[in-house]
Amino acid sequence: MVENGQGEGKPNRLSASVDNLSQRFYFSEQNRNFTTQYCNIYTSRLVAMRDSLLQAAKRAWGNDINYCKLMELKTGITSCIIGTLFKRMSARPNILQEISDEYNLIPLPPRTKYADDSDELVAEDETQRISLTGNINVTKSVTGVIVALLGKELDGGKFYVNEMVSAGLPKQIPRPFIHNDKYICIVSGLNLGSSHQGFLTMQLFIDFITGRLTEGQEDRKMCSQIVQIVIAGNSAAQQNSSTSETNKANSKKFSSRSSANTLEGIKALDEILTQLCSCIPVDIMPGEFDPSNHIMPQQPLHPCMFPKGFQFSSLKSVTNPYEFSVDGVRFLGTSGQNIDDIYRYSYFEDRLEICEQCLRWGHISPTAPDTLACYPYYEKDPFILESCPHVYFVGNQPEFSCKKITGDQEQEVLLVNVPSFNQKHSCVLVNTRTLDCKPISFDLYENL
Amino acid sequence: MTENYHFPETVRNRWARPRLNSIDVNKDAIIFQQLDMDYYLGSPVPGMPGAATGPVPIIRMFGVTKEQHTVICHIHGFAPYFYVEVPPTCRQSEMREECQLFQDDLNKTVLNDFKSNKEKVSQAILAVEVVAYCSIYGYHENRQTPFFKITVATPRVLQTTKRLLEIGFSYSSHPVCCYQTYESNIDFEIRFMVDANVVGCNWIELPATKYMIRGDHAPGWNNAQSSLNRTSRCQIEADIAWDQFISYPAEDEWQAVAPLRLLSFDIMCSTSRGTPDPDKDSVIQIAAVVIRQGDYEPFIKNIFTTQSSANIVGCQLHTFSKEKEMLKAWHEFFLEVDPDIITGYNVVNSSLPYLLNRSKALGIEKFSHLGRITNEKTQISSNTFQSRAYGKRENKVMNISGRVQFDLLHALLRDYKLRSYSLNAVTFHFLKEQKELLQPSVIADLLRGNDRSRRRLAIYCLKNASLPIKLLDKLMCIINYMEMARVTGVPLGCLLTRGQQIKVVSQLLRYAKEEKMLMPAHKAEAGDDYTGAIVIEPVRGYYDCPIATLDFSSLYPSIMQAHNLCYTTLLQHHHLSNLSPDDYIKTPSGNYFVKKNLRAGILPKILQNLLSARKKAKFDLKNEKDPFKRKVLDGRQLALKISANSVYGFTGAQVGKLPCLEVSQSVTAFGRQMIEKSRQLVEERYTIKNGYKFDAQVIYGDTDSVMVKFGLDTVEESMELGKEAANYISSHFPSPIKLEFEKVYFPYLLINKKRYAGLYFTKADTYDKVDCKGIETVRRDNCPLVANLINACLQKLLVDRNPDSAIKHVQQTISDLLCNRIDISQLIITKELTRSDDEYAGKQAHVELAAKMRKRDPSSCPTLGDRVPYVIITGARGAAAYTRSEDPVYALENSIAIDTTYYLENQLSKPLLRIFEPILGENKAESILLKGDHTLTKTVVTSSLGRLSAFVKKRETCMGCKAVLDDNSAVCKHCRHRESEIFQREMNHLSEHENRFAKLWTQCQRCQGSLCEEVLCTSRDCPVFYMRKKVQKDLKEQEKLITRFGDLAW
After folding, report:
1. Residues A275 and A328 in one domain
2. B796 interface with A at CB cutoff 8 Å
3. Quick one: how far is CA A132 from the chain centroid?
């Protein structure tokens, strides 16, 4: 093993204690079992979240609310119900159509949004489901969210909603007091191996991290304060569209679908990781296009693909989602699939708003398993937000953006959308002391 | 009734029909839409016309008013009758006396013939009178001849009388004579409808003062109270003479449809094996959905069940401790909600008889009182229905007076050709939804479970009951059938239980009556068939240029009209001498018919009426905005079209009521001649010589269309020329024959007679669809792979115009097939198990399989009437295919190898060669498609079953080079440097499987309509069923491979 290189001219880097808190996202090899069905994850989600919803409902509407299960509803009596939302969507892609399309070859027009004005909401608990109407925003609700609803059943068998509350931010451990500015660098969407990839910007990024780019005292100081890099998915290039045509036939053939560009990308990534790890700890998360499994939670990228990088103990391959703490500051992040999916199936335009909603819903990825593929968990739902992070970051987003939100129990969370490096040529630095956040751009044309 | 179940008042009010306000006979007319009609024998009612003694037939008409009130109307005074020719020996001068003699003697003979006079008829023959009519069959120079019109006491007497007259009868001193009877084979109800100008589902008015109201109604009713007792459950029960009511033709405001109540239901029985037996297996649940015609949502959804279940929103749940109680209560519900139309999926042959038999077994006497007549018991009998158009079928028949039994399954069997008729398949086909299907064993488990699991069962049952309503609405069945009933004049209930003939008979009678003509009673006997219609041999090939298609609109009807072909105009040879040659025509088939000036035929008149009504309906449709009225009009025009076409069929039906081969063969002969003439006209006129760019060529002529290759390059030019040609040719034919230009095919693939495909243009700029005739896209005895592949090829050939990509696609698919990459659902062949094994002459795959499955598990094997899905698996060399059929699920679970060669050679090759031969040439097609490199690689699956597999010890091989490994690692040392690449490849497969797994199982979760309930569906009509099973297996195996690279989490 090679120790963290602290060669000459390089900044004397600070260090931090980083703990991986993502145990719940790991599988050991025995327990992946695909004979279970998705109903179990919905049931466990509902059971696990019911209490916090009930409390939220009591906070909002008083202790004497008439809470009942759906089957106990009586027409016309105002009651509080707790259930999973399900959105009926006419435009949702459907495997049945896909199957027939495979043979009829009528391409569906590609869409960026599958939400539609005709969508309807349904609430469901273990006992049954009921259509919702009234004071409820269909366009900004998604399937899988657990909510408490105050309203009454109408004659026609629909539930008229007066008000709706969600679980809200869960409890947060207090943020430790930290003396020094320390930065976590988050980067995503390196997209290595793609044809339009800037080698130069990549090199600039490496030089910046390793301290070779720093000019002034300020810069050098800041650089030395970066204690950890997190690569939030999509390090390897997506299959580009020209190859995907031929791959349609090939995918059936099960010939090597891993096209040359991914292979190249992984090789290049290995080199880059080697350079980075020589001077700083790196956590690498898998993303949508990385050679990892498809369904959430994605398992760590396999070390056999990085024979050089894994020479360093400073390289850690981690899950997506990934939760960790840096000197006691809690980070939670994903490679972006969860937010992209909600974006597609709702009328949300602001992605930060989606991040905020997710936290307030108390769930990292409510649309899994419905529209986002996830493992069929049997007795738990690991995506429930059990404690509130201090920083919530999402990779592979179109733009950088960040904001701080607060909860009603004085929780404070920094939300960060990390742009795709390949498109925006920037990474994000998060200060663990102040929870300030800034993008560092390596765009050749903007900066130079 | 003290033993009634006590439903809460609110529930009852919801079910009940609106209260009836008082009716004043002197002021109020009763107006209703009649739906059903029957007759019974009763005693004569004073003041009514008809026989004054003995049993008289009384017509019962059931209907519904605009206000949803039910009406029963007893119609008095109509007696059955028929005609015979007056024998030549009859004294013309003493007709009155002759009539009397005839009547007396016939009466005696008939009464003598009765072995037991069940109906207690004292006067069999009510009247005999002489009328001047003529037979409909043949031209009689418009001379009317005397007929005896024989009015008899009851329809049954009519049959006896008819028989006696036909075998020979003599009266007074006349010699024995075998009489030809006329109109003696007409159903009594049809006879009545014709004479009273009633058509199916039309509106009837009982004018004020003309009718009597029965029963003790609320005080204050100013009624001439009838002395007759109420006999029915209808809200209004009235009596009227048969000539006193008004029957409105279905026009303008009378096209309306009353708010009829449709009840759809489904039952669930407790059985774990095969078909439930009503003597042993109890009914657990009955789900019912009731909707008013014209509404969007059902107003009642309920479940009757014997076991407690959790509530269902929007559905009333009625729980009973005992099955007997439940059935009694459901019966009460049924009577209270009082449906006009009973529907559901296969209710007539299954659910309804089951309920009846079950309640009989439980001794619930009153359950069989389902009809609107209070003391009538519903009984079940069987009836074999055979028709040229619909094939042979056995049906149960139940008498439920006043309610129409409209089984959706029967309507679909009649109107659509489908691969499968299971409710699942049908739902997917028409609504693009899948529906859960539960196995009996799963149902039994759910039943033993808790309230929640039983609730699930209830929802399942409810869905089965509500889907037929949805489908009826989507397919507009009720409206279309109602319009058909109105157009053809037969009762609604007839349309699903009878063939095409009755419709034509009803129309024929109506016209004949106006013209004072009679229909002879024909004895059915089989005869020879006559030549079909194809005329111009196809010039096979793939045409990459526009082909204009000229169609004769309504060809056969218009030929009959143009040439005045009819029973009434048919000339026999010996008549020719009496006529001038200008008065008749000789048809191409050598038959003679008189021209219009001598006698206008009845059939042309019927057709004229139908087609002009259709034109009007189409015109109204164009201008109508209201969606419901549009539905009615569209249904009407379709009904009119079908009816017009069935007239020709009627004259050709050998075993029909009145076949006339002279007419039908003349029609087809004319058709052939016209097609031939059109070809001549086109090919003579559109030539380079005449200044056109190319010599036109007719490449194919079908029954009523001609395909012309004008040689032009664009669709637009071809359209113009097509239109011109259509007008030009039309001018050479007598009106109303009209050649219409309809469409251009471009490109066009002409495979053979009746087999072609093309891209269909009606507008110059965009195509409408891919049109296929006679190609394996819908055939039911093929596996779906064939239809899908052919469809894809046609799409590529015709739409993309890329024969190369079509060929590639075929090669890829064949390669996929041989390498086992085709989804098993694509390879499933289904056949219906129609007879028990020993009845089948030859060995058949699905029968063999059914027997095999019975051995494995008698409880879940297919039974008679089920469609059996199977795949062909590999077997001993040379074993016949039928021995190698296997249950797809069994094959999947045990990794049994599919015989891919069988699929290639027996399923794919012929249809493929058929479409590609015109393109590639005969020999080349086979060598390119079926024998190329792509057929060389084959994957052999090792079964987990079988004797040998037990002895085989598997050792892992390197994923890079297939070298045998000593340990359980992923790659051998020589491939170590490629480990990353190999890993990525395997990981990609895993991702794909995972993705598929997620998509498939979430789809099932959505389809079953809940998030928290387990998916239990085992619908084999759904492609997802096999895929999701396969993907679980694939995932397990792929996961095993991945773990050989070392643990992911470390």
Report:
1. yes
2. yes
3. 28
